[in-house]
Amino acid sequence: MGINLKFYQAEEFNNMALKNKEEPRVLAIILGGGKGTRLYPLTKERSKPAVPFGGKYRIVDIPISNCINSGYKKIYLLTQFNSASLHLHINNSYNFDRFSDGFVEILAAEQTLEHSGWYEGTADAVRKNFGHFRVQRPTHYIILSGDQLYKMNLKDFMNKHIESGAEITIAAKAVNRRDASGFGIMQVDDENRITAFMEKPAADMNIDAWKIPEKSRGDLPASLEYLASMGIYIFNASTMEELLNNKGIIRNRRKLEALIINSNKFIEVQKEFGSFDKYIWSFTKGKRINNKLKSTDNLPARNELSDLISKDLIKRGFKFTGSVIIYSYLQGIGIINDHTINCRFYNKK
Prior knowledge:
- The chain is α/β, with parallel strands linked by helices.
- The chain is built from 12 helices and 13 strands.
């Protein structure tokens, strides 16, 4: 599926009007945040969005205020960690009158017949609560973080999204190279379409190709060369549902994290052995193993070699490298030949 994905800088959202269009039905989803370890001990007994701010207010009041003042009064708050204080604040603070269809409703992580675990990230939290969202029949979703301090006219943001014809829009902030290492960085073309995304590039990594195109720079200071995601998203409702129902998307957070870990470990092996190829073939001293199978009735799923390599990879810090997975990998790269002896590929080098 091709998705038209765009970004817009926060400064561009002012004074944009929606013309000749039916008013969208917008549902706001605010994420309740995690442990907030950087604010400890303020987060010892409460989540980061529940931390007091400006007297009687809490950090979560910022995105809620942005929503309400932008005209979006249907708001779900997804909570999970140290949420009692946050729940109490929301229940005591946000009560719309009976003539309004607005609400600020808490959806805490829960066990159901379909889901038994905690939220494993933004997408997982949205997916597990999508049944609640769909009931509101929105045309668009706006997803916000519950622990950020900013002022934004979200209606202007929504208007620009609709005018652009994009299916997903991400709010962005221009940053310098030093700060870029602390954010997710977006690469865009001259039409502001997002072409790539990179999470927190290393400080010594060359990311010159990710600089903001000259056409999109406007009046930005010369030192601000990269676009950092603000974690504020707009989705067309149909696009959101299609993505959540796409079974080809990896949703296991640990597997996604393992991709990053394994990539770094792969580089370490390359540096130690000269190449990953040399490392793998060193286990057989460069020789291929021919199993001389007469049929495929009892194909092995693992052997002593895959056990040995699996243990070594795990010792080096690799993730999801069990013996069965490694055996399949050895078949794929040709170290193990499991073609039957009458197969035309059996003797192929």
